[in-house]
Design goal:
Radius of gyration: 23 Å
Strand content: 5-15%
Helix content: 40-55%
CATH class of the largest domain: Alpha Beta
Number of domains: 2
CATH architecture of the largest domain: 3-Layer(aba) Sandwich
CATH topology of the largest domain: Rossmann fold
Bound molecules: uridine-5'-diphosphate-glucuronic acid
Number of helices: 16
CATH superfamily of the largest domain: NAD(P)-binding Rossmann-like Domain
Length: 425
């Protein structure tokens, strides 16, 4: 079994480290954040990801997983070095590689001959080649091995992936990296660095485009009286189209789709290619977020500045505590700008929000709706499907429901007494 260093104990690094240790490897995960390492050494996972705390605890007991402060302390004894560092967006959509480059500089002096540096962070096309040039060609090899982990489902996505993508300039290095995954039953796709990097960006941009398409059709359904749930079921049965990523919603968000779509568009521009389809996808998602906020504003106009909106769901989707580029926050910002009073409830968010300091975060969905003129459901947590909506309707000042995830049936809600608006239904 291999000796592995994982640089970065964020969501991707920690999942990667714990899963590789679960597969039998000896893994050291490093981070420069002392509090984070202290937490992990004390058995605390510093974010919400279902099953990860249990997995970390189990593999830590086998001594195959440990946590250290500082990348060199992990890399000095390892053969494989996974880079799992943040690659956020710059204002122009390009990728900020400063954390990533700092990590490489940190480990460069301790890398042993014949080591493999594996890039898991999402980076623009051309990055692996530049890293190889920076590290030199004398016995240290760079391999691109993008992650396809979806928050809330990360462990399953790692251990039962739809595919493993490995890009390098030599089959020999790719095969050494493929060997790390030999206990996983999945197709291994080997390619060049550039193709592996483009596969990652293309996957996220394609899914974002698919969702924008569905959200546009949902709007057309509203105008024409068709029903998006029927339309997506009708096309999803066609295996060429497929039924995943077909749920109309408030607009897509999260730490990956917005940043990766913008980065791919920027990569295309840097090569002189105007990727109009992708640029429009990004713009249309912003328009869709506007449209979602407009639904609430039109149903409950705030002309006298006395309207109160209750929001269920703050994270960018169910199953996570991640608020980055959350459509919920985007929609609520648009309401805050119109001086609505806003109360919110989310199963994983309990603190006041930096992005929305004026909104009141409550402890229960029922407390949240007191005196509300409208309830907007923004994420698809199971908890929101199991509430007594008759009690909810009676507790509100006015029973207006904007269900941006189509969790409830329009006819049933109207029977209870709600004025109901869904997405494309
Ligand atoms: C996404 C990809 O799905 C992962 O494969 C990828 O590895 C990851 O980015 C990454 O690059 O690290 P994630 O950001 O966790 O994963 O989010 P998704 O579950 O894909 O959802 C993205 C957005 O689309 C959310 O706002 C979600 O609510 C929305 N969505 C998704 C819909 O509105 N409808 C759907 O049917 C599916």
């Amino acid at each position: 079994m291999a000796k592995i260093a994982v640089i970065g104990a964020g969501y991707v690094g920690l999942t990667t480290g714990a899963c590789l240790a679960h597969l039998g490897h000896h893994v050291t995960v490093a981070d420069n954040d002392k509090n984070r390492i202290d937490d992990l050494q004390a058995g605390r996972v510093p974010f919400y990801e279902p099953g990860l705390d249990e997995l970390v605890s189990n593999v830590t007991k086998t001594n195959r997983l440990r946590f250290v402060l500082g990348a060199t302390n992990a890399s000095k004894d390892a053969e494989f070095h996974f880079l799992c560092l943040p690659t956020p967006a710059n204002n122009d959509g390009s990728t900020d590689l400063s954390f990533f480059e700092a990590g490489i500089s940190e480990i460069a002096s301790v890398l042993q001959p014949n080591s493999i540096v594996i890039n898991k962070s999402t980076v623009p096309l051309g990055t692996a080649k530049k890293v190889q040039e920076a590290l030199g060609t004398d016995g240290i090899f760079v391999v691109s091995n993008p992650e396809f982990l979806s928050e809330g489902n990360a462990i399953k996505d790692f251990l039962e992936p739809s595919r493993i993508v490995i890009g390098s300039c030599s089959t020999e290095y790719s095969e050494r990296v493929a060997g790390l995954y030999s206990n996983i039953d999945a197709p291994v796709l080997m390619s060049s660095w550039e193709s592996a990097e483009l596969i990652k960006h293309t996957a996220n941009a394609y899914l974002a485009m698919k969702l924008t398409f569905v959200n546009e059709i949902a709007t057309l359904c509203e105008i024409t009286g068709a029903n998006i749930e029927d339309v997506t079921a009708g096309i999803g049965h066609d295996p060429r189209i497929g039924s995943d990523y077909m749920k109309a919603g408030p607009g897509w968000g999260g730490s990956c789709f917005p940043k990766d779509s913008a980065s791919l568009a920027q990569v295309a521009r840097s090569f002189g290619f105007d990727f109009t389809l992708l640029e429009h996808t990004i713009d249309l998602n912003q328009k869709h977020l506007d449209r979602t906020a407009d639904k609430i504003k039109q149903l409950v106009p705030n002309n006298s500045k006395d309207k109160r909106v209750a929001a269920w769901g703050l994270t960018f989707k169910a199953g996570t505590d991640d608020l980055r580029y959350s459509p919920s926050i985007e929609v609520l910002k648009r309401l805050e700008a119109q001086e609505y009073e806003i109360s919110a409830y989310d199963p994983t968010v309990k603190d006041t929000l930096m992005q929305l300091p004026l909104i009141e975060v409550t402890d229960s969905p029922y407390e949240c709706i007191n005196d509300a003129d409208a309830l907007v459901i923004l994420t698809e947590w199971d908890e929101f499907k199991q509430l007594d909506m008759e009690v909810v309707a009676q507790s509100m000042r006015s029973a207006n429901l904007i269900d941006t995830r189509n969790l409830y049936d329009k006819n049933e809600m109207e029977k209870i007494g709600f004025t109901y608006l869904g997405m494309g239904v």
